[in-house]
Amino acid sequence: MAPRKRSDEVELYNRLTLLRTERGMSRQELADAVGVHYQTIGYLERGEYSPSATLALRLAAVFGLPMEAVFSLTPFRTLSEQVYGTQESS
Amino acid sequence: MSSPTRTQRRAARLDDPRFEYTRTPRVRRRLVVAMCGLLVAEAALFLIAERAPVPFAVGMAVLVVAFTLCLGVLKGSTRGVEELPAHALDERQWQLRGEAYARAYRIGFGLLTLELLAVGVWLVAGWPAPGTNILLGAILLPFHIGIVLPTLVTAWSRQV
Q: What is the CATH number of the domain that holds A71?
């Protein structure tokens, strides 16, 4: 269980799992790169914990991307949708 | 390469992957129940202290060992989030600790208020003064509960 979210807390979406696996990194390697516990990476990836601005910037820097490419207040479009312009069947 | 500091060694020991089996919610809650059982046993021992000093002494010696072992495993199960200094924790662990301490404060406040009420009722009712054993228990038990409460709350409520 992650730290409890406040009821008024806005959902923060991220692409951490995709970016990490794309680069062949383990959670431990990513955790070491940004200076957190490896479990925190798991909580972040599952959207159960929202990072501070500092941590979000550090994570984006590891992937060499701007923060808005890694985190968003609206859901990211799926890969198939972006590449082929199709919606994933639910 | 510089040698690890005392805090780093302590953090590494509490995060030892060999104790991963103690970090499931079920095992952590069983440990919490075991620690509560030890505290109840301690209270019971204080009740018999005057009548049976030898069983009291033997029981306390056993309890101290069990208490130390149980607390050690409990701290390992929480990775020591409630005791490590802030620089040894990341921001999520720091937040977890804040929540655990806030809850432990509320529980501790409630327990101490209950104890105060009990003392008040005792005085108002004019009951005879309790023996030394009861007074000692009334001082030592809250002390022990205060020591373990943040650990119990962290282990009971959070995956750390």
A: 1.10.260.40
